[in-house]
Amino acid sequence: MTSTMIVLIVGIVVVLTAVYISWRAGRLDRLHIRLELAQESLDAALMRRRAVVLELAGSRLLDPATSLVLAAAAHEARSAGPEEREHAESDLSRTLRAVVDQDRFREKLSESPGGRELLEELDAAVAKVVYSRRFLNNAVGVTRAAQDRWLARTLRLAGHTEYPQFFEIDDNPPAAMATE
């Protein structure tokens, strides 16, 4: 009777441990899926911002020098490799701020045909980058915390996935966009 009871208790403990480990592995898997989706969302938002900036630069609504500066920054961000990507996207953000924060920029562009629509697209694209980056960095933080747990490290529940990295860029919107 006593040996049967010990075997039964050990069996229950083993089953509960296996269920818990399986649950933790499933959670890590779901977190990695969330991380991939957040990365794709950020990539799409950055691509959309570059496209809108290039559209604005090619619209002939700006002076040639401003158009050239915007187009160059967008091209650099588009063609940057993985190591230079954060720096290039930050440069595009700073260039956008310098252009949009010029005196009466928004008013002048709004008065031009098609200018108001471009401004609305630019506002939406810039805001989407901010939100997507925050969402990605939140997902990175949660995933890192789950991977750093003792059980996940010991049993290698994350498998051979790379340790997630934060995406740190200067994505502050131009002051003229933040006030509206």
UniProtKB/TrEMBL annotation:
It comes from the Bacteria. Keywords: Membrane, Transmembrane, Transmembrane helix. The chain crosses the membrane at residues 6-23. This is LemA family protein.
